[in-house]
Structures are given as structure tokens and as C-alpha cells.
Amino acid sequence: MAFAGYCYYRRAEIRAMAAEPAGERGASASKKQRPPLDHTSMFETPTAMSVQAIGVIRSPYKERFGTPRQATVWEQSIGNAPQDGEIHLNGDPRYEHALRGLDGFDYCWVICWMHLNTGWNPLVTPPRGPRTKQGIFATRAPHRPNPISLSALKITSVDYKNRIVHVKGLDLLDGTPILDIKPYVPYADAFPNAAAGWLDNIEDKKGPDYLGYSPPPPHLRQKEDKPETEGVSGAEERT
């Protein structure tokens, strides 16, 4: 009965449209398709949202000590050089197509959820500059109301089949969940002459900081390369 009623309704609607002049019929159709001008007033602003990880970071950094504080600040970190890493997307087959075109960009923004951080304070002491507390929103401290991180990573290659993005210059721990990836667009994302607040008063922005480990803890120190001793006697080696 419901289907029969629907068919009757559709036939009546078609007859009514056929009776309208062509010009009026087009105008009425366009009015029906046009969204309301103030359509945001039709919805309530949410106060809580849910997100789903699209993948995970594979990184040489296993703990926060020795991990760079910024993707471009790798002094005092493990290896004292930018490290290679990988972005592994989940098994959704659509992600293979979602990566299309990313290999044409030099850098990408990677948005992650810092799942190991709990709690936050409104005022923090930055690791660089004068020992003055700053508001959490004026710093990049990892403990935040929502532990979301934003990293600009260099793209070295993209493996579409396996849904892996190879990157360099990580500042993320291994196993960090990924929320999104966006291309870095210089004309829209770079503001080289922008003021940087309290950071403008620091001469060496990439230098050692108060919280750095120099040298790092023993279990994080990399073994030094042994000198080549081929063809050298034991006495000469000891000297």
C-alpha cells in the first residue's frame, strides 16, 4: 500500500509539473534546490566530537627523550640529524586513491593525536627563551586540552599500493595515531615575515634548550663508529 501511495503521489507530481509553463517549471525547480542563505542557523554547534585514526606513524623515536621538539629542530635529538619515518595508513582501500597526487609535493602537514599525553596546564614554561610562563595557546607544548599535533614533514616517496608515505624530519613518537594528511602549500602556508611573539626575542631559536639532554641518557646514546683498524697492529691500535 505504501508503494502504491508513493506511485500515486509521483504521478500527481509529474502531472502538475507538466501543466506548468517551461519557464516557471525551471524556476520552481531551482528554488527547491537552492539551500537556505543562513543554513548554519539550522544546526546546533557541537561541543563534543569523535575522530577516527586513519593510520599510524612509524618512527625511530620510542620515547620523548631524544625526540625533536619540532620537525625542523633536530639538534640534541637521537642521531643529531633528521630521521626517516613512515606514515602507514589503515587498510581502507580508498586510502590508496586518497593519496593520489601527494608525491608531487615536497612537504605535507600531518595531524596526529598525542595519545600518551594526559592533562594540561593553562600556563607553561617554554624550553627556550626567558624562564617566563606563557599561555598554553601561545606555545607548542604537547600537553593540551585536545592533544593534537601538527607537523610539517618532508615527503621522500609515496607507496600507493601499500598506502605508505615515506617522510623525513620526524618529531613524532612511534605508534602515534594519524588523524589527517594535507599538502603543504607555500603560497598559502608560509608567512616568513610574520611576528612570532615572545619567540622573536630569542636569538638562537634552534639552539640548546633548558629541557634538552646533552648528552642523552645512556640507553639512547648511539654507538660511535669504531675506527678502521685493518692492517694496524695491536700496539698502534691502542695509541
UniProtKB/TrEMBL annotation:
InterPro entries: TrmO-like_N (IPR023370), YaeB-like (IPR040372), YaeB-like_sf (IPR036413), YaeB_N_sf (IPR036414). Transmembrane segments: none annotated. Residues 221-239 have a biased composition (Basic and acidic residues). Pfam families: TrmO_N. SUPFAM superfamilies: YaeB-like (SSF118196). Belongs to the tRNA methyltransferase O family. Residues 207-239 are annotated as: Disordered. Keywords: S-adenosyl-L-methionine. Residues 51-193 form the TsaA-like domain. This is TsaA-like domain-containing protein.
